[in-house]
Amino acid sequence: MANLLHEDGLGGKGLSVNSFAERSGMSTMYVRKLCRDGKIFGARLHTKTRQWWIYPPAKLLCEPRKSRGNTSTPMRSTSLDVKQA
After folding, report:
1. Strands (E), the chain
2. With a threshold of 0.85, does the pTM exceed it?
3. Minimal CA–CA distance to 40: which of 85, 78, 74?
4. DSSP 3-state assignment of 41?
5. Nearest to 43, CA basis, from 85, 2, 82, 1
6. How many other CB atoms are found less than 10 A from the CB of residue 3?
7. Cβ–Cβ contacts within 10 Å for residue 58, how many?
8. How far apart are the first and last CA of the chain?
9. What is the pLDDT of residue 60?
10. Whole-number Å distance between alpha carbons of 40 and 58
11. How far is CA 27 from the centre of its chain?
12. CB–CB of 10/52 below 8 Å?
């Protein structure tokens, strides 16, 4: 199993885009788009691997989009806690 936490060199541990998307209930592609657009506070692009890592305190700076089919689903919270394992 791949390591889902990433050491930033300063003592902080970040989540991969896949694990952040799974925890927040969004697709991986949508989380990458939010990272590129600067909509996730705490998201950083690794300079060598060119992968996004999301460090605490992670926070969405916009409302996540609603699902298309189910209109009875309540909106998700915009503040997400990234817990260190």
Report:
1. 5-7, 13-16, 40-45, 52-60
2. no
3. 78
4. strand
5. 82
6. 9
7. 19
8. 15
9. 83
10. 7
11. 10
12. no
Q: In this structure, which amino acid lies at residue 23?
A: R
- What pLDDT score does 44 carry? 92
Structure tokens at 43: 């998201």
Ramachandran sector of residue 42 (left: φ over 0; alpha: ψ -120 to 50; beta: rest): left
Rounded Cα distance, 75 and 69, in Å: 14
Average pLDDT value for residue range 4-10: 53
Q: 63 is written with which tokens?
A: 């409302």
Q: In the numeric block, which tokens belong to residue 74? A: 């309540």
Q: What is the pLDDT of residue 10?
A: 46
| CA–CA distance, 62 with 78 (Å, rounded to integer) | 7
pLDDT surpassing 70 at residue 9 = no
pLDDT digits (tens, 9 = 90+) for 27-75: 999 999 999 999 999 999 998 989 999 988 888 887 766 655 544 444 4
